Amino acid sequence: MQSSRFQQYLDRYLGIPLCALLSLFCRRVRVPQIPKKILFIQLSALGDTILAVPTIRAIRHAFPDTEFTMLASPTNLSYLTDCPYIDKRIPFRMPMYQLFAVLRRERFDWAIDLEHWPRLSALLAYATGAPVRVGFRTKGQYRHFLFTETVEHIQGRHEVRNFLDIAMQLACPTQEFMLETWFGETARTWVREALVKEQVSLDVPFVVLHPEAGRRGEPRRRWPQEHYIALADVLVERHGVQIVLTGAPAEVQVSEAIAARTRCRAVVFAGKTDVNQLAALFADAALVVSGNCGPMHLAAAIGTPVIGVHGPTNVAQWGPWSRNAGIVRGEMPCSPCLNLGFEYGCQALPDGTSPCMHTIEVSTVLRECEWFLVGDG
Q1: How far apart are CA 27 and CA 69, in angstroms?
Q2: Is the full-model pTM beyond 0.90?
Q3: Residue 42: DSSP 8-state
Q4: d(Cα 142, Cα 294) in Å, to the nearest integer?
């Protein structure tokens, strides 16, 4: 889950006491063999939702007649619009008192919390009144008190496998590990028309650069802008590709700043796509280069070659889940420092980035790119 520092502070110093207090009223029950209604909770992080799909799919295959509901942010729900494993969707946007009423009214049998550190999601699972509440027991987060079934969250283990432990806890077979996307022809048509409008030839390969990496106002996972500029120019010079820059509406300025300084022509799609249009764009790309963020996982789910540029984040836990991926890591003794997503080990530099991101050379990322563009990839 991504959140502001104030939300993290509130979640910790109010959430932990609440979890401990409410745990006094919890009682353990046997897991029903066939639940009628299951709620999944994933409040904000797109990447986490993408990585949880194999788990949701495994539970769906085990209970094909059960009604599945997802409580998530609008972006996550947009990604899941055509997901065949979800029957109902509850947006995490309404006032809390109204949300609590909706959750109680649904009378869920199981509530499965897919978050790994926030106390808020554990409180929401408790608020459902579901007799079975499943979630991660994460070291130092004190959120497991409100669950009737807990799954150990293992640091340094890929999140796909951590999520799959939830399915295993519920005795659901976990034989399919691939990620998925469900963008339709409408998104594909929009993308191709937009590319033509921006004079991006569909007959010439294009590379997508996604320069932001994480939530708005927290650029410490971002590779420096001048590195993206240099990479774009050399890719065009050596390989004749076209360059497309992507990002969320709040990230337009970063993409425009890069495009303005490249010698080559770079088209800015930042702020112009929803999540499914972005997926369709990635599907047509020859390659995606991105820091560790939701779009990196989205590209991996599609199967488009993707280069993940990592500094603070633990690659073993958060690297792209794809055989069609390359990984470049920062080289500092303290890297990686992020396993949960907020526990940065050093202060940001004046430009907001982390020191370890500056140790990643353009030539190193270029070498990974060329492996897919002209090598054995």
Answers
A1: 24
A2: yes
A3: E
A4: 26
